[in-house]
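Q: Can I see a sequence and its folded structure?
A: Here is a first one.
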Amino acid sequence: MIPQFHVWVVDSGGHVLLTKETIPPLANPRELARARSGEDVAVIRRNARRVIVPMKNGELMVLERTLLARGTEYPGFPLLIWLVVSIVSVALLVWPLSIRFTKPLRQLHSVVQYWAEGRLDQRAKISGSDEISELGSVFNLMAENLEKMLQQRKEFLAMISHELKSPISRLQVASQMLLEKANSDQSASVIRGMQTDLEESSKLIEQLLQLSRIEMGLSFTVMQRIDFADIIGKAMIQIEPTAAAAQVRLEWNEQRALPIDADPQQLERAVLNVLENAVKYSPSGSEVTVNTHRENGFIFCNVSDHGSGISSEELEKVFEPFYRGIAATGKEGTGLGLFLARRIIELHHGQIKATTNQPGGTTISIQLPASSTSEPSNPGN
């Protein structure tokens, strides 16, 4: 853009005395008054630069340098509108494209989250022939292969556990026969040690078999409306001999009318595992207390012992398979009891957690959704 220069000589009233221009100067009366007082006036505008210099006899010289043709304003506001319109237009063009590309990615992300939670039966439903669709197909194939591998592993574990039960049972019978015919205290002691190991192995195999059945969804076949108090009562009867041998008292604030929908056999196993764990880590002469109540549509069962307790770092780990903490040193066990209990409780849409008591001990808390009716059936029928 070529600048243009304009020159005028004006009198004190602003009338042009001398110029070659065909247009009048743009100086306003205020600028002229300042120049008449002897001040050099410089005015800067967006499209022009103007200088007014006082001369002799009150005359003034007006010099103007313009970048645009006189009368043409700088198009600032139209440019702003143009920028806004351009941004909106680009956004309208880009938005459909972004939806097209991000929607399948979001769908794939949600499916991958399901897989991370162990729900490998979910599939990414992405159609098309682009790279994202191909990626979705690869992910689906990967999920199918993983699902097959896990199913085969579960079936193999169930088969091995079932096949091991028979030889273990035969060994237990044989050890009992040997114990009856033992001719010395030393031989009897060795045989009793064998029986203890066989019993522990049998318990581990039974828990593995039970876990494999649960993972394959073969166990929860008898869902009934029952009173949770009946489940606790049966578990207490089963654990009583073990507690008596360990000189641990069992206390229960028996409360009825705790209706739930559950598989009685599986839920009883979960409660029994929790009770066995509490008795195992209770010192001789202490007690294990069981408290139950119903609140806000849920049934709660808290099993508390007075053992050495669990550190804060181990509270979540105790529900992991085969985990045995510091307190388990020298204690018999497989590390599957609480893990199996958690899986059973979760499959009943409940929750289980561990907390440390003060000054010592641990509380295992079970929370289950209460049934909508208060007329449970008898699980023994």
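Q: Show me another, different protein.
A: A second, unrelated one:
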Amino acid sequence: MRTLFLSALSSALVLHAPAGMAGPETERFIQKSRVVNCPLDTVWRKWTTHEGLLTFFGEDNSMELKIGGPFEIYFSKDAPAGERGSEGCKVISYLPRQMFSFSWNAPPKFPAIRNGDYHTWVVVTFKAVRGNRTEVRITHLGWLKGDDWDQVYQYFDKAWVTVLDWLEKSCPR
């Protein structure tokens, strides 16, 4: 039942972009997953709290787990405003301990995409697995067409693997 629900949810997110966002022009998406050596509750807190994000994702953050709340990861606190990280990104939805989604922008090195009005979005799902471990699946959706968008897609196809590496390293062995 859970798989059916999450499949329907992912389909709904692909078909219906968050409020204020145009729908994607392509159906492509990035999907990465990893089983990490942390219990589900721990992994949920790592992704959905200010303190948890500090354990693996960025130098600092502004995170409020509520619909429309900030989901801003700062990779460079000393950079000028607007170039610190995922500034302006918001929580889209969540189902406690199962799914969390947020809008996402491009890095500053892609100003044409970053400074536009359109953001992609990310759905992170969580599933407890045997041995007190957790499967984390990241699905990055909402890609538009064009050379600049292709470059950002290629960037995140690699970057989400790095984020999962950081998450895995933050969990005890």
